[in-house]
Please model this.
Amino acid sequence: MNDSAQPQPLPLDGITVVAVEQAVSAPFATRQLADLGARVIKVERPDGGDFARAYDTAVHGLASHFVWANRGKESIALDLKEPRGREILERLLADADVFVQNLAQGAADRLGLDAAALCARHPRLVAVDISGYGPDGPYAHKRAYDMLVQCEAGLVSVTGTPEQPVKAGIPAADIAAAMYAFSGVLAALLRRGVTGRGGPVEVSMFDALAEWMGHPLYFGMYGGEPPARTGVAHAVIAPYNAYPTADGPLVLLSVQNDREWRRLAEQVLERPELAEDPDHATNVARTRNRTKTDAAVTEALSGMTADEAVERLERAGIACARLNGVAELAAHPQLAARERWQEAGSPAGPLRTLLPPITLPGGQAPPRGAVPALGEHTGALLHALGMTDEQVAALRRDGVVA
Model:
């Protein structure tokens, strides 16, 4: 086989990340880096570690959040309040390319781990501070958990039904911050390749989610009022909703323009006159008469099974989907057909986990890293720093490491 046929290395092969992280935002960001080949050293407290380890016991005794956000990492348990623990962290940072932390506001500064201080000591280091609301401003020291940030950023106000606002069913603020931290690291590494210097990266959960609120934010600022809460329906497009079928499952369909409405009326609803009806002929009219529009669609689809409805809609070229639950997602034929599942090790044994969503055709397969036990790699990492068995045992005895 010639060299041109050899798989390309993973993009972050050779990059070392040290993370003092907890919960979701920083761990999910660093997991993306691990998926691209980076070595991620996760620094945890000796007394229980990342508190996300104790959120639940759903995954054979392990926490579902932790399993999701922490595969492919090495865990070292250090007491960073103890000088010897901080000295070990400093030695790890001496060979690191990236540092990520999402400690409570002010905690990193007290430990000398804020991005500005670290980059002054290690000029090539990319140092990421993830916070709730940013390093300054009146909310800088406010406690920030995902649901609270969803509320402050207005996401909850536009999610739910007219009667009831609801939070997103996933930690949207954490995920938004994680993905901006991830892309910020990649950008900073590219810049370092040109300048030779790393530098600070700042991401806040609030800023990240405020950016994701772009449509309702600008709609409300310039349109006079925010979009209405409409459940799974769309606030300004009709029909765009979930409809019952004869055998029970809900089928969601979306009509994006008046040509599609004509096809829906003629080929699915079997009511071609609705294509020209003034109450339905345009999207503005359909949205204004949403109750009548939805009633016409419901009448037609409720006489079909879900399979029949999806087949009819797809034949007519109408975008549609099944309103699946998590069980249906786990068994989804698209994931199975594209072989998107892999096996990952864990303290509870092999686990079925999803492949990372970034696919690099022609490159090496993503690493099948395990979910680490607390302090699983402490000994190996300390020995790699040149410590003897006696020194490691003394640190364990004194509670500096675990």
User: Anything to note?
Assistant: The first strand starts at residue 16 and ends at 20. The radius of gyration is 26 Å.
